[in-house]
Amino acid sequence: MEDVETGQGGSGIGWFFNHLPTILWQRRNWIIWPFVAITIAATVAAFALPTLYRSTASLLVQSQDLPSTVVQAPIAGDIEQRIARIRERVLSRGDLIRLIEQNNLYADERQSKPLSKIVDKMRKATTVGAQTNDLGGGAAGGSDTIAIDISFDYPNPGQAQEVLQSYVNDFLSQDNEDVSEQARLSVRFLEDQANRLRGQISTLENQLTTLKARNGAALATTAPPMLDLGSYSSQIASLESQNRELLAQINRVPKKDPAVAQAEATLAAAQSLYNDNHPDVLAARERLRAVQQMARTNPQQDESALLRSQIAANNQAIASLQGARYAAMARTQSALAGSARAPAIMEQAMQLENQATGLREQYRKVADDLLQAQNGARLANEQRAERLSLVEPPNLPDTPYSPNRPLLIAGGAIFGLIVGFLLAFAVEFLRRPLRSPSQIEGLGLPVLGVVPLLGAKRKRSRFAFFRKKSPRFA
């Protein structure tokens, strides 16, 4: 009797594995048609997708030629960051549009799609990847990137190679400009810093020189000077005593010479008796003149004049001594005032000197850094610093990179087979036909007997293996 399909079945799934060959044979259409349909679709898609050729190139991250112990070349940041910056500039919208127009790329698509879509597609077709050091250790700066791989996919292999060559040239030039610009910026910054420090040092040195020149006496005085005015006072007192003695001597000296006094008396008596033209008056006058002349020629008679001249000389000496005493007192007062200001002046001078010393240390370090930066700039200009160098130039691809038609067809066939099996199993589990007595017994019904299915001999011979394991029952 034929199998009867029903919505009820046994309680377990052991019957499924026991009758798996029969299930696969009976549900073969659910497996074959999805397999065929999906395989055909994968085949059509494999031949419908555009053929792409991939051109590749490699750039080596080359270290500086001279050891870092000799000269430190400028480094324009971490290598990964440098590559990222260069990639953004190379793949910028303007540069990509220039390459598209220069090489007439995506000619058909440019007629139907906006230019922004074409630029995005070109970016997706460009790949920039880093090769890392798999030997361990890494680089001195912490980066283990040793090379850069660049590729470009395009239907035309020649155009793919040309575009990739433009990428490589842009990468090399941008990297060289980055390193050179970094070297120039370092030199210019350090030069500005060195000039600023030199100006500050010169200003502090001028302030220190002016302070020392203005307060030299105060800085040179270590202790207040001793004021000794006794010598001036004693000398002045001695001269004043001499002047008093000289005045006493002048008072003791006669006012006039006796002969002169007598001649003057005779002249006065004659004038009282006679007129001025009288011979006695003229004779008395002549006598007085002669006596006076004789008195002037006699040194002993001019003693009072000598005493007065000595007194005048003593007065000049007294005035000079008084001036010297006043000057000494002024110097002493100035020294005392300077001694009081000396600690503050010395503290100010020390602060200026400390500031100048600190700036000199900074200038020395900046000068060393400037020398290294100048040497690094020379390395960069001579392209001997850390840089990217071309290892593998862009190749001309001779085989398509995409699509992989055999892989796509095989993948489609496998996927179709999996979908077919899933559909067959799903139908089997949803319909759950009765295939064994145990399933009927699981429903609580007695099994009266099992009747084998008698079919054509040809069918039994072709599927004897499957039929043998699936006896029919009533």
Residue-averaged pLDDT: 75
Count every beta strand, where a strand is a DSSP E run of 2 or more residues: 4
Approximate helicity band: 55-70%
Under the CATH scheme, which class of the largest domain?
Alpha Beta
**Name given to the CATH architecture of the largest domain:** 2-Layer Sandwich
Q: How far apart lie the N and C ends? A: 6 Å
Proportion of residues in β-strands: 5-15%
How many DSSP helices? 17
What letter string, H or E per element, gives the SSE order?
A: HHHEHHHHEEHHHHHHEHHHH
Structural class: alpha+beta
Low-confidence stretches: 1-12, 137-142, 456-474
What would you report as the Rg, rounded to the nearest angstrom? 64 Å
Q: Main beta sheet: strand number and arrangement?
A: 4 strands, antiparallel
Q: From the 3D structure, determine the CATH topology of the largest domain.
A: Alpha-Beta Plaits
- Compute the number of structural domains: 3
